[in-house]
Amino acid sequence: MGRLFELAVGAELIQQPVELHYWRERQSEVDFVVTDKNKTYAIEVKSGRKKTRKGLDEFRNHFPDAACVVITPDNFEEFSVNPRKFLETIAI
Predict the structure, then answer these.
(1) Residue 71 to residues 26, 68, 74, Cα–Cα distance (Å)
(2) What is the pLDDT of residues 17-36, one digit of tens each?
(3) CA distances (Å), 51 to each of 6, 16, 65, 81, in order?
(4) Reported pTM
(5) Nearest partner of 80 among 14, 21, 32, 31, judged by Cα
(6) 69 Cβ neighbours under 8 A, 6+ residues apart
(7) CATH code of the domain containing 52
(8) What is the domain extent for residue 69?
(9) pLDDT per residue over 24-78, tens digit each?
(10) Cβ neighbours of residue 7 under 8 Å, at least 6 residues apart?
(11) Regarding beta strands 39-45 and 67-71, do their DSSP bridges make them parallel or antiparallel, or are they unpaired?
């Protein structure tokens, strides 16, 4: 289920006019890194109960100006309606 949900989020993101990447360093990773209008968003996709922020925290250590976003089934509908607006408003 987790991989399918991650693919659904990726499918929404790839349709946006943004730069889209993946980030990994040692044991830490972020599912998607989006650059839009000189703003960087680190996105973690969480479909289950375990919602660790380890990857986001490590990413922010390297890129302190990045906004961190967690997309879950609870907020996916809002995200899919307008992904760019969602990122702008929910980033932590």
Answers:
(1) 23, 10, 8
(2) 999 999 999 888 999 999 98
(3) 14, 26, 22, 23
(4) 0.88
(5) 14
(6) 41, 42, 43, 44, 87, 90, 91, 92
(7) 3.40.1350
(8) 2-90
(9) 998 889 999 999 888 999 999 998 766 678 899 999 999 999 999 999 999 999 9
(10) none
(11) parallel
**Residue 6: HSE in the Cβ half-sphere, 13 Å Cα cutoff:** 12
* Tokens standing for residue 77: 């509908």
With a CB cutoff of 8 Å and minimum separation 6, the contacts of 5 are 45, 47, 73, 76
Query: How many domains does the chain divide into?
Result: 1
Rounded Cα gap, residues 34 and 82, in angstroms: 15
Give the span between the Cα atoms of 44 and 31, in whole angstroms.
5
Length of the chain: 92
